[in-house]
Amino acid sequence: MIDDDISQSLDRAARSYTPDASQGLTNVRIRAARRACTRRTGSIGVALLFAAVAVTLVLVLTRQEQRPANAVHYLKISATAQLIPLSTPSKGLTDVYFADGRHGIGMEQNCSLSPTANTTCSLAIVRTSDGGRTWTPVGHALQVAYPHSRASYPFINFVTNGKDGWIYGSKTYVTHDGGRTFANSGLGGLVMDLSIVGNETWALSRPCPPGNPACSSTIYSASTSGGPWHAMNGAPRLPYPYLQLLHTSATDGFLAAHATDGILYATENGGVSWVSHPLPTLCAQLLHVTALSRHDVWVLCTSATPNDAQTKELYHSVDAGRTWVLLATSTSGAAPGVGTLPTSGIVTLVTSVDPDHLWIALDRGPLIASTDGGRTWAPQNLPTSAGVEQLTFTNARHGWAVTLPNDIYRTTDGGMHWTTAGTQ
Is residue 32 within 8 Å of 14, Cβ to Cβ? Predict the structure, then answer.
């Protein structure tokens, strides 16, 4: 790991998955980003899609003055991270983030399923110094057995600031040495989201599985460097099984259900109190949220559909969700100045790099991008039709796409051209 200071923005790392309706709950939600998940279920009579979006990450490689020769060098990640389920069961590298053209960090997971025994997984934190071509374990792999998981994959997500980090989901573990060792975190329940912003970390947990509607979520906070978790008593406790928590600064945060609620909850005082803002009508079906700050919040509302055609509406707010402006839609006859989104394709990922550059990944559709804040969209030349699991950008031009089955592509010109960075 080099010692030069690097300060480059990384966009919301986002992940998604769309299991076949016939597979039902046997398919895994391994990840968070949010890092964003799309799910079909027959519980409402159609294949309802649950989606999540990833939250902004900023990766910075830091150097301390007069560092001793044997000092430990961490890949420092600051800002909120939400990791989102994969589209399919993972057999290798997941949760990949880059600080620059060469240096990145991720998690490798290998899980074994059995019809008669609980699922067991080997989880290891890995790093790359050659742009993703090769990956080296940071420490020993964590061996985990997940209870009540016969013939199914558990929720497994990873977030880190380079030194402190959590493997979270069905079970939650913490590290304070860059992933070399892990211990039980003290946070129970199913942790759906976890994000690090500076000295404080937020977690969203519920005490029962997603299929059980008899419990509500709780938001917790803890010191990033270690300490007990404390419930945010002023935060809304929602019964919906799939929620998205965005923590954009020390004071600002957003909470939304992926479906059926139609409300965005916002805090501007570090979670002490929250206010609710109604979302546009279509958002009551499905929604994806991405935010840079309280002044730049986007919500992509979509219809719940059993086929590959999906109504889409993209809105923007400059006042933390109090008011919304329609930027683009897939519906014909829109007002002048409103852009066009494709009807075909199911939204699995929405992310913003900066106020101008946004990306949308579509299952059974192309990767599309906007350079004017979301009003106009164009397909990108990603050389694969495989589903996009995650997008990571250090700036508007330099980024990586992780696709099924754990292939990594790199762009240096904002998505016009992509080259293979590595295959796991």
Answer: no
186, two tokens = 């003290």
Element (H, E) at 168: strand 165-169
- Phi and psi at 311, nearest 5°, equal -70, 135
Amino acid, single-letter form, for residue 222: A
Whether pLDDT at 223 is above 90: yes
**First-last CA distance in the chain:** 21
Tens of pLDDT, residue by residue over 174-203, are 999 989 999 999 898 999 999 999 899 999
- What is the overall mean pLDDT for the chain? 77
94 touches 30 (CB < 8 A)? yes
pLDDT of residue 422: 63
HEC assignment per residue over 47-112? CCCCCCCCCCEEEEECCCCCCCCCCCCCEEEECCCCCCCCCCCCEEEEEEEECCCCCEEEEEEEEE
**Separation CA 402–CA 335 (nearest Å):** 36
Task: Give the mean model confidence (pLDDT) for residues 101-125.
Answer: 89
Contact 81, 62 (CB under 8 A): no
Q: How crowded is residue 301: how many other Cβ atoms within 10 Å of its Cβ?
A: 25
What is the arithmetic mean of pLDDT over 114-143?
90
Cα–Cα distance between 254 and 362 in angstroms, integer? 24
Alpha carbon distances (Å) from 315 to 56, 131, 207, 283 = 18, 35, 33, 10
The yes-or-no verdict on residue 76 having pLDDT over 70 is no
97 strand-pairing partners: 105
The DSSP call for residue 397 is: S
Q: Between 70 and 281, whose confidence is greater? A: 281
CB 150 within 8 A of CB 76: no
pLDDT at 133 over 60: yes
Mean pLDDT calculated for residue range 121-130: 92
Q: Which two tokens stand for residue 103?
A: 């240096």
SS3 content of the chain, % helix, strand, coil (to 5): 0, 40, 55
